[in-house]
Amino acid sequence: MPQVMDADRMSRALTRIAHEILERNRGTAELALVGIRRRGVPLARRIAAALHDINGDDVPTGALDITLYRDDLMRQPVGPQPVLRRTEIPFSIDDRRILLVDDVLYTGRTIRAALDALIDFGRPRAIQLIVLIDRGHRELPIKADYVGKNIPTSPAESVQVRLIEIDGTDEVIVQNGEAS
Amino acid sequence: MKLLLRGGRVVDPATGTDGEFDVLVEGGAIARVAKSLPSEGADVFEVRPGWIVTPGLIDIHVHLREPGQEHKETIATGVRAAVAGGFTAVACMPNTDPVNDHPGITELILKRAAAAGLARVYPIGAVSIGSRGEQLAELGAQAAAGCVAFTDDGRPVASALLMRRALEYASMLGVPIIDHCEDPSLKGDGVAHEGFFAARLGLRGIPAAAESIMVERGVSLAELTGGTFHVAHMSVRQSLRAVRDGKSRGVNVTCEVAPHHFVLTDESLESPVRYDTNVKMNPPLREAADRDAMIEGIADGSVDVIATDHAPHHSDEKLVEFDRAPFGIVGLETCVPLVFDRLVHTGRITVKRAVELLSTNPARILRLPGGSLAVGRPADLTVLAPDAEVHVSAAALASKSKNTPFDGWSLKGAVAATIVGGKVVFSAGTRG
Amino acid sequence: MLRSRHLLGIADLEPAEIREILETAEAMKEIAARPIKKVPTLRGRTVVNLFFEPSTRTRTSFEVAEKRLSADTLSVAVATSSVTKGETLLDTVRNLEAMAPDIIVMRHGSSGAPHLLARLCRSRIVNAGDGMHEHPTQALLDAFTILEHKQRLDGLKVAIVGDLLHSRVLRSNVHLLGKMGVDVWGCAPPTLMPRDLPRFGVTATTSIDEAVQGADVVMMLRIQHERMHGHYIPSTREYFELFGLTPGRLRRAKSDVIIMHPGPMNRGVEIDSDVADGPYSVILEQVANGVAVRMAVLYLLAGHDAEGD
What we know:
The complex is a heterotrimer of chains A (180), B (432) and C (309). Chain A has 180 residues and is an alpha/beta fold. Chain A contains four helices and eight strands; from the N terminus they run βαβαββαβββαβ. Chain A has one domain: Rossmann fold (3-Layer(aba) Sandwich), CATH 3.40.50. By secondary structure, chain B is an alpha/beta fold. Helices cover 31% and strands 22% of the residues of chain B. Chain B has a six-stranded mixed sheet with strand order 3-2-7-19-20-21, with helices on one face. In chain B, strands 11-12-13-16-17-18 form a six-stranded parallel sheet. In chain B, helix 1 packs across helix 2 and helix 2 packs parallel to helix 3. The model of chain B has no long low-confidence stretch (mean pLDDT 97). In chain C, the strands form two sheets. Chain C has a five-stranded parallel sheet with strand order 7-6-5-8-9. In chain C, strands 2-1-3-4 form a four-stranded parallel sheet, with helices on both faces. In chain C, helix 1 crosses helix 12 and helix 6 crosses helix 12. Chain C is globular and about 55 Å long. The model of chain C has no long low-confidence stretch (mean pLDDT 92). The interface between A and C is medium-sized, with 22 and 26 residues.
């Protein structure tokens, strides 16, 4: 299976993103990270750690489950209801710049759902989007502000991000056929 | 007119007959039962190998619903169901609307039955006016009009005193009192047998004791009065114990069991369909131990009669919550297949015993002219095909109502033909 | 994934399904803490609450759950008089189905009423209490509440005291707790105790002291005043004397015992006010958890096929 990113490159990409965040936002004031479950959450934590390493600041980090906001939830023919996990955002998002974090940006529908969810939590000053992988094929007008790597794919392929916190290893794989 | 039933095994406990014989019928009566009879201008009915010829079957517990509830069944449709089920005669219960507590209603029933011209109908009259348990009905006039027994079925005879008087009075007329044995206060608003399955399904229970204490009451009063007491639709082993006990002391007590009580148990409340109102009847389906006890009683002679308690109800009435559905299932057309499939073919009883339960004893208890193939008796015969496969189809029943729990069942044992007064009123091949 | 498109009773659920509902409820509970207590999940879906028995608590709990999921809710309180007008249950529901509800939440006085509908109607059915049979969402919220306090169900001693014979809450709880490995005790006078209770895996006793001894959870069920008319108990006064949960009796339980009641309570009949309002009582939490659990149930059922599986 073609590995398009190994652990080393992943780490460097995240560090680079952390620098970009600081540069663009001129510091960490008002920033907060919100990882989109599931794999956006450990990525958000790593970025928070990287920001801390560079800057010494602690950026608040939360986890967002967007299942209930998905636009395809009730439209599936027959299938198990996706597992619902807790949303944990232990801070007010009002007037903050929220950095949404997800592993793969594809059609953009997940991000659309995340934006709807976030708006129900309050009124942030701004929302920026961080993704580890952008694989193209947007169906909505959504654009990432920070990208780990651009990987052109065909719709028949699936992109799998594996993280130590969940999968025991760090890598990104591109596979033919539906993701398992 | 003459009819010859040629070939086949004739089983008639009343005359001690069991063997290959021909039966000649003339002028509506049995003329001869002997080997190799000549046809001599008679219509010939060929009895196929394996078939059995018996005295006409008699169901002494049937609800024909007319007058008053013709949407469920009429006398015409009821007797059609009866002959389809192999019955040449039925005794019909008085809980019509109005209740049959008056000779006018008895006469109406007899008239309608005669017009239908299929199975004979013997009305059973109410013990009390309106079956309300307050005042004795005119049992003498009713007996003269044609009633063969008395009951307040649907309900028990309300008080011990009334039952005592009824037994005494009826003994003068030579007819039995039939009781729907149930203590109303113990039954309460119960809808199912008080046991594990009702508890699990949250259904109010009817304890076995509700039936057995009234059976015991009846036996004691029959002993006191010398009257004849018949237990309708017996369902629990405690009742059977009381009946056996009474018989051993020489009390005039007899009893009947319905097919559903020797085939099904309260497990049917849950499976195959939960809360199926087609398993709601009174007395309710009981525990496995009761069903087994009923079979034992049928086998060892403690049980005298199998009677269906045929209780038609319109499908609108049954397609409701369990609590609200009326009690009862139809039974005329499933009785013979169930008796053969579950009792005869399993070796629990012989064919002879089956005929006693379905013909000989019913006739004896109600003092009816049938139940025997002795010469001169009415030519009521049933031709049975014990090895024929039957697939029960509710939709195909001749009865107006289709409330049966046996829909879709495959059973072995069918009716080939039913003959009343020497006329073939039902033949399986020409089923309409 | 729930195997059935209906929730008719706990008896039909496997432990894995029960766990799935409870875990989903935990995620749903967080929504109540948000400033905007709403998610768009059931937007455009219609849920009908069909209540043939009066109920404020359960009905409003379902309504809140439905509204929090953005469903369109329609609450129909069917007075008994319209039943006596002659319309059958089936006709009532078929008329409702003309408006194409996605889910019907029904409470009915007859055991098995939702099962009749599930067999013969098109909608998904959620049983909000049928006669004496089951009240599945109540048992689920009870388990949820117990889990919040005890972090486990397996091995706990739960004592259920009250009119066990007529209680659908008892039956659902016995099914659920039994499937999850709980040691269930049932306490009632013999007249209010189902005779086959031990066959359901419950230890039966007529002694409240024995039932409460060392209990982790004590669940009180209400005694209806009408029970005096069926000769079940001589009086509510005597019932309280023999079976009422008082602070003194409560001392026999574990020191971290929790007291539960599905409500509505009869103070001074099955439970002393001091206990109901005391530090061990989680009765009000049960109510709050009811919304989260019902949201979870609606969410998990709504994902099923529209027309029969």
